[in-house]
């Protein structure tokens, strides 16, 4: 399939990067932080009941950049990378055509699963931002984390959150074909901290091969709406999930965005 180059977190081992990282010179849990199994309010639970107790200030480009998390917000040994590097992260394990025969209501469900893979490959999990948008990338060993703050003041991020909430059922397991290679994809819901006006978390696991060896890519994906603005987090790698860091990014990042929208300076990072 043909893909347009775009920004997105791509999570690959450096040793396998040559075989799986698609980057051209021209391209510009299952577990919550509270340790319980109780899920937070998901997007599907607020469908049709849009809650907007958040500040109504318009998010500017400077504000979006101020709202970005830092290394201290996600602790561990994460290192911030250059913006140009994060811009060009690409993961070939997410490329492929969904096998329609895996689904009972083939066309509709396969389309949703294809949209999920495409939106992970591109940088538009909640659709293209209609306003300010800033991102920041971090790397830790063979894992990567991409964090984005964006405004959707002329669209509706709630619609996309509601859609994400349907995917664990629609796309619980399916097959992707890329040339002669087949990969198995699984999607489950993960809980998130009870922050923002609505939120949705997913874990996407892709089993295939990289550089001729068996490989499993695990991505924790989170999206939180604050009024007409939202944060998105994608974190993981070939060696396993990065759920703790994704949870921290959601917790700290949502508060930073709220502070910016309220005209305040974000509180110092935990460290």
Summarize the topology.
Blueprint: H1 17-20, H2 61-66, H3 71-74, E1 79-80, H4 83-87, E2 97-98, H5 106-121, E3 133-140, E4 143-151, H6 157-170, E5 173-178, E6 181-189, E7 198-210, E8 213-226, E9 229-237, H7 243-261
Antiparallel strand pairs: 1-3, 2-5, 3-4, 4-9, 5-6, 6-7, 7-8, 8-9
Organism: Streptomyces iakyrus
Keywords: Signal
Biased composition (Polar residues): 42-59, 245-254
Strand order, biggest sheet? 1-3-4-9-8-7-6-5-2
**Which word captures the global form?**
globular
Total number of strands: 9
- Give a quick account of the main beta sheet: strands, pairing sense, barrel closure: 9 strands, antiparallel
Which spans of ≥5 residues are poorly predicted at pLDDT below 50? 1-54
Mean pLDDT: 80
Strand content: 25-35%
Q: Count every helix, treating DSSP H or I runs of 4 or more residues as helices.
A: 7
The first-to-last residue Cα distance is: 44 Å
The class by helix and strand makeup works out as alpha+beta
Rg, please? Answer: 18 Å
Helicity level, as a percent range?
25-40%
What is the ordering of alpha helices and beta strands?
HHHEHEHEEHEEEEEH
Describe this structure in words.
Keywords: Signal. Residues 30-59, 235-254 are annotated as: Disordered. Residues 42-59, 245-254 have a biased composition (Polar residues). The chain is an alpha+beta fold. Helices cover 25% and strands 27% of the residues. It contains seven helices and nine strands; from the N terminus they run H-H-H-E-H-E-H-E-E-H-E-E-E-E-E-H. A nine-stranded antiparallel β-sheet has the order 1-3-4-9-8-7-6-5-2. It starts with 16 loop residues before the first helix and ends in a 10-residue tail after the last helix.
